[in-house]
């Protein structure tokens, strides 16, 4: 949960998640909707899907015992080299380097490495340095200390060099460049994409939701039926859903920011007139009762639009 998400945001999600899934078997046996429901609002939903699938793999392929070799751990979904090293060093005391964002920042400053640490050409020397500093004991303490050191004393914007025990040997500090290093990624304007979400309600006020494909943006989550911005929504519904709708007044535009693009959403409320064909039966659809919500994963803007339908709240720009 802490990958790409701040600690203060994670804590309540973490507590709810562990209360609902107290052990690996409970998580592995759960449906993906249960998992994504508790993940809703955290963003980067592939993390939740990977966690669920990893629990199933440990249940089915490792007899419910977490694997203890690097080669086995790194095959689990969502676990890369640094995460595998962190797990094995902290849980089993094994000698493996890690290279999360905090450690990258620490090593870049200590050795005055110029370029952005996300580059492949910079990663290789950073991994060598991370391995070079490994102790031969107390690996769990060392690994945690490295992450905490980068998160506190060697923080991104306000490094506490006056309190740092390594300040004398830190090249960035000697050069007075601790605030310049590591270099930031060159920013570029995110491309803007457009879509129309159909907020279709039936006579009882239930809202039609459709489950998205298991991979891709909002993979496995439930969202409103989505049609291309240029498409005629009435004709699209007849063709794709086999139903007739009456378009109502559009809601304000919603802008949602992903890591690699921004999405402009046109929320288009509509009323179901009839359902003459059986197309709905062939799609993963759900009539969602806002007053008695289903246990299912909802993307943050979908959740807010549902609340707006129910309460008339204003939708603000959100990030994922």
Layout of SSEs?
Blueprint: H1 7-20, H2 24-29, H3 32-39, H4 46-61, H5 70-73, H6 81-92, H7 101-110, H8 120-132, H9 139-151, H10 171-174, E1 192-201, E2 207-211, E3 222-223, E4 226-227, H11 233-241, E5 244-247, E6 254-257, E7 262-274, E8 285-288, H12 300-311, E9 318-319
Parallel strand pairs: 1-7, 6-9
Antiparallel strand pairs: 1-4, 2-3, 2-8, 5-7, 6-7
Helix pairs in contact: 6-9, 7-9
Describe this structure in words.
Helices cover 38% and strands 14% of the residues. It is built from 12 helices and 9 strands. Strand 6 and strand 7 (262-274) form a beta hairpin. The strands form 2 sheets. Strands 1, 4, 5, 6, 7 and 9 form a 6-stranded mixed β-sheet that branches. Strands 3-2-8 form a 3-stranded antiparallel β-sheet, with no helix packed on it. It starts with 6 loop residues before the first helix and ends with a strand. The longest helix has 16 residues, at 46-61.
